[in-house]
């Protein structure tokens, strides 16, 4: 697979999607591990399998359906990614941003992104929801930045600002909706690691010291690409497990999928509220 994406490849995918749906989505939604059921309540949806979109990275992971669901939710036209590809599946980091580029060229202005994450913050428990207020991208710091390679000037500048990549207005709105619906929502910092192995206890103690509240293997590459192109981003972590800082427990993918069942109704209520108020 080629490392760098061209505008022609992006626009080919855009054409295919436009030919398969009557909708013009304005909001994009990425549903992470175990959270895909959120897409089931979209009205009169069009479905497009990732494998039918040229260049679209396909996920091989259990709990990721691998299709777009496009339709109306709370009066907004949304394009939902029911599952996502991850860096650890073998894609170049630049390819992980491909769907976001396509969304932008389709006219999407706001991205709501979700993931399953382990809790580093001792106040969090499985089933909780966290708004991502900022992120630590150890991968991007280490060189695996999704914007590496020739800059696509159609989207944004060579050196994009990242000081407000999670939209403060959307965060405030989400907190108000959580209060109104009596759903506890944490504010926290998400750290993205390459995966697929979970962290060692020493990894986790390090991540705690550097300021992470939740840890996962996704989201940050997509958010960097979205911020580059001027999209507003709202990010959520569904807390699926306590991170194992003292080595006393083990983390499994089944546990992550199980916690998703508790998180989906909460996230659905919050996201519906946000969409209705947007
Ligand atoms: N670590 C990394 N990624 C994860 C975890 C975790 O504990 N839980 C869900 N995704």
Automatic annotation (TrEMBL):
InterPro entries: Nucleoside_phosphorylase_d, Nucleoside_phosphorylase_sf, Pur_Nuc_Pase_Ino/Guo-sp, Purine_phosphorylase. SUPFAM superfamilies: Purine and uridine phosphorylases (SSF53167). It is an enzyme of class 2 (transferase). Coiled coil: none annotated. Residues 26-275 form the Nucleoside phosphorylase domain. CDD domains: PNP-EcPNPII_like. Phosphate binds at residues 33, 64, 84-86, 116, 218. One of its GO terms (biological process) is nucleoside metabolic process. Keywords: Glycosyltransferase, Phosphoprotein, Transferase. A purine D-ribonucleoside binds at residues 199, 241. Pathway: Purine metabolism; purine nucleoside salvage. One of its GO terms (molecular function) is purine-nucleoside phosphorylase activity. Its EC number is 2.4.2.1. NCBIfam families: PNPH (TIGR01700), PNPH-PUNA-XAPA (TIGR01697), PRK08202.1 (NF006054). PANTHER family: METHYLTHIOADENOSINE/PURINE NUCLEOSIDE PHOSPHORYLASE, PURINE NUCLEOSIDE PHOSPHORYLASE-RELATED. This is Purine nucleoside phosphorylase.
């Amino acid at each position: 697979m080629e490392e760098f994406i061209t505008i022609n490849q992006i626009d080919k995918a855009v054409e295919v999607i436009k030919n398969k749906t009557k909708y013009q989505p304005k909001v994009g939604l990425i549903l992470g591990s175990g959270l895909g059921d959120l897409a089931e309540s979209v009205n009169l949806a069009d479905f497009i399998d990732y494998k039918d979109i040229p260049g679209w990275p396909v996920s091989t992971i259990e709990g990721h359906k691998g299709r777009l669901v496009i339709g109306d939710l709370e009066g907004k036209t949304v394009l939902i990614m029911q599952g996502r590809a991850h860096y650890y599946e073998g894609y170049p980091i630049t390819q992980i941003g491909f769907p976001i580029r396509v969304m932008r060229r389709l006219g999407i202005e706001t991205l709501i992104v979700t993931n399953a994450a382990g809790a580093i913050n001792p106040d969090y428990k499985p089933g909780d929801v966290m708004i991502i207020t900022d992120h630590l991208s150890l991968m991007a710091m280490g060189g695996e930045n999704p914007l590496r390679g020739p800059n696509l000037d159609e989207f944004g500048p060579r050196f994009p600002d990242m000081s407000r990549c999670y939209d403060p207005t959307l965060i405030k709105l989400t907190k108000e909706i959580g209060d109104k619906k009596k759903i506890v929502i944490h504010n926290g910092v998400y750290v993205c690691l390459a995966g697929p192995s979970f962290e060692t206890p020493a990894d986790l103690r390090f991540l705690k010291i550097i300021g992470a509240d939740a840890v996962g293997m996704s989201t940050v590459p997509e958010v960097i690409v979205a911020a580059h192109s001027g999209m507003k981003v709202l990010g959520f972590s569904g807390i699926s497990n306590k991170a194992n800082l003292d080595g006393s427990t083990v983390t499994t993918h089944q546990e992550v999928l199980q916690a998703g069942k508790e998180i989906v109704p909460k996230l659905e209520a919050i996201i519906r509220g946000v969409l209705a108020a947007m």
